[in-house]
Amino acid sequence: MTLVQVQPRSTHDTAVGRMVAEAMDTAGPQVCDDMTVEVALSVMASARTGHLLVCDGGGLCIGLVTHAQLTAARDGSAYSDRVQLRDILGDRGPFTSPVTTMAEAAHMMHHSRLDALPVVDEDGSALGVLALAR
What we know:
The protein is of the alpha+beta class. It has a single domain (11-131), classed as CBS-domain (Roll). It has helices spanning 11-16, 20-23, 37-47, 67-75, 85-89, 102-112; strands at 25-26, 30-32, 51-55, 61-66, 116-120, 126-131. The longest helix is centred in the first third of the chain and has 11 residues, at 37-47. The radius of gyration is 15 Å and the shape is globular.
């Protein structure tokens, strides 16, 4: 799991720089990693969202899957109706913390070419999603 770490900041720095907690959206739809791609696409369409938070059997956030990822997996030559989200997610993360500054999160998203980033607490539970404005 890749978690963006931040160093404690002075009161002045915190007042000037917005934190992720101030800008994130609520967690939204969370699905289990054993869900199939087809069902996830259906959930995504019903929720009218471009991404889903994926959790393991213990309820911990293990990543985020996008419509583009699901579509690419479904259209791939190795696809079957048994492909689960855990099969296409790969490594855990990246994630960010609610106390990360927006500047740090924006840098990470730009560097990693991400449109959305899960926000998790210190235990790995999903708190929300930081998404680029469209």
